[in-house]
Design a protein that fits this description.
Blueprint: H1 2-15, H2 22-28, H3 30-46, H4 50-64, E1 67-68, E2 73-74, E3 79-80, E4 87-88, E5 93-94, E6 99-100, E7 105-107, E8 119-120, E9 125-126, E10 131-133, E11 137-138, E12 143-144, E13 149-150, E14 158-161, E15 166-170, H5 177-186, H6 200-229, E16 239-240, E17 249-250
Parallel strand pairs: 1-4, 2-5, 3-6, 4-7, 5-8, 6-9, 7-10, 8-11, 9-12, 10-13, 12-14
Antiparallel strand pairs: 14-15, 16-17
Helix pairs in contact: 1-3, 3-4, 5-6
């Protein structure tokens, strides 16, 4: 249990740029306080000290604003950012390296006993105010947008936004994804990775622009290669290399990458 608590504290440095020291995290992060309390209450729950587990969980809710049922199963390196208003039900299951923001609910849709809360895979990020309801599975690496309401299973690597939640991007469904990432990296579009959390029209528009730029780049290279084969004289026009870190002139009539 102590090893898991150490991992929960250490992962804050990776996911919150405001974190400055371990002492600051231990003393001022309610999300960390909540998960430390849960590690204890979960152990008590399965030692059949259920009332004591619930009592400590209730105290933790008073101090942190985070309500985690002792029966919930939570993996390693779990991070709750800000924390206030987070609710995690009894039969919820959360994988490793997951992140929840404030106002998230992992709730049930039935009063029947048994599995009635969601299961989150590994590396799932749930945005502020999102609600995931029912015994559904959220696949590994998925992103749930802020204020989304999800009541259906989500495939791995998907991005879900809206009410009711709709998949706006799914990993591996578009063979041009790698081309888009490469072009975005060339032009220094760091926010490209964040389009997973944007609304569908914005993500679609950016993807179209990146596709268009990639197509133009390939056509220019093909034209220059054909002209060289025909020995057509071309002006050695200097063009900048599309690289956010190194912008250097090219002596060829098309775009080149620095080695």
């Amino acid at each position: 249990m102590l090893q898991r608590i150490r991992e929960d504290i250490q992962c804050v440095f990776e996911r919150d740029p405001a974190a400055r020291s371990t002492f600051e995290i231990i003393t001022t992060y309610p999300g960390v306080h909540a998960i430390v309390a849960h590690r204890l209450t979960h152990r008590l729950w399965y030692l059949n000290a259920k009332w004591l587990a619930r009592f400590i969980a209730a105290l933790a809710r008073w101090f942190t604003g985070v309500e985690i049922h002792p029966g919930a199963k939570i993996g390693r390196r779990f991070f709750i950012d800000h924390g206030m208003g987070v609710v995690i039900g009894e039969t919820a299951e959360i994988g490793d390296d997951c992140t929840l923001y404030h106002g998230v609910t992992l709730g049930g849709t039935s009063w029947n006993k048994g599995k009635r809360h969601p299961t989150l895979g590994n590396q799932v990020v749930v945005g502020a105010g999102a609600k995931i309801l029912g015994p559904i599975v959220i696949g590994d690496g998925s992103r749930i947008g802020s204020n989304a309401v999800v009541v259906k299973a989500v495939a791995p690597g998907s991005t879900v936004v809206g009410v009711p939640g709709k998949v706006v991007q799914q990993a591996g469904t578009d063979e041009r994804d790698e081309q888009r990432r490469a072009m975005a990296k060339k032009i220094g579009f760091d926010a490209y990775g964040q389009t997973q959390d944007m609304t569908d029209p914005v993500a679609h528009a950016i993807n179209l622009m990146l596709d268009h730029m990639h197509a133009v780049d390939r056509r220019l290279e093909a034209i220059c290669a054909a002209l060289k084969e025909l020995d057509v004289p071309m002006a050695a026009e200097k063009m900048p290399v599309l690289d956010a870190c190194k912008i250097t002139p090219s002596t060829e009539g098309h775009m080149e990458e620095n080695s």
